[in-house]
Every structure is written in structure tokens, then in C-alpha cells.
Model the fold of this input.
Amino acid sequence: MEEFPDFDSFEEEMLYSSMKKIGLNPIHHYNYGTMEVDFAFPEYEVVIEVDGKQHKEGKQHLKDIRRNYLVRGDGWKVWRFGASKVRKYSDFIATKIKEKLEKKGKAKNTLEKLEDRKKLLELGLTTDIDPKYEYDLVCKAIEEEKLKLNKEQV
Done:
């Protein structure tokens, strides 16, 4: 039987239930580095936040700006929904999240990203200061990622 998570708000619980009801599997209270986000879909590189009134001003608002900057800087998307909207439209919001995830498609895994970067470096399509150094680093990271994946399959 699936364990039901502890929620910080009624609205988080509503959105979680609505997402689960249509087949989504969000990770609740996902640890993103040193931060905790309401929900995440790591395979899509998407964070979902449910914002109450406290998110509109003061320290919490500044924390949210910093969090958005850090998460988006890693290439992830942050989708924020006001708690009052979630209360009224949680099923609709969950459906829109599902549609956007399906449209976005799953994110590339680490190995795919590294191999894409290697190809760009091989073609000289980079603005980095020392492409040879980065190429060597990317090749090494690809080998390490392949070793890690092989160990996980055993």
C-alpha cells in the first residue's frame, strides 16, 4: 500500500490527489540541492509549487525568487500556482500539468546531455574559453556515467 505523504497545506494535498487521480506521480517534498520543493517531476525537470499568501511578500517571497533562479539556472522549469486557485480548480490544474508534461517530453538523461555537449565541442560549436579542456572533462564524465549505469544494471 502506498504511503500518503504529510502535506504543508490543504491545497498541496488537493493538488497531489488531483495529479494522482489522472495518473501523474509527483514526488512530494522533493529535495533539490539544499532546498525542498512542493512537488517535482525529475524525469521532466519540472518543479511544481503551491503558493499561499505568505509567498507574496517578505522573506518567503525573497526565498522563492532565489529558488526560482537556482532551479531555472539548472535548466528546470518552475510552475507556480496560487493556493486559492488550487482550492477552486485543482482537477483542472492537474490536467493542465499533465498536458504540459506530455508536450514537454521527458528530459534527457545525464549521459545524453554529455554526449550532446561532446558533439558540439567536436564541431567547434562552443563559446567556451578552452574547448579542448572541456572536451576532455566531458569525455571523462561520459565514461564515469557509463560505469555508474553499468553498476546500477548489475
Notes: The chain has two domains: 10-104, 110-153. Residues 131-153 form the longest helix (23 residues). The chain has a mean pLDDT of 81. Residues 110-153 form one domain.
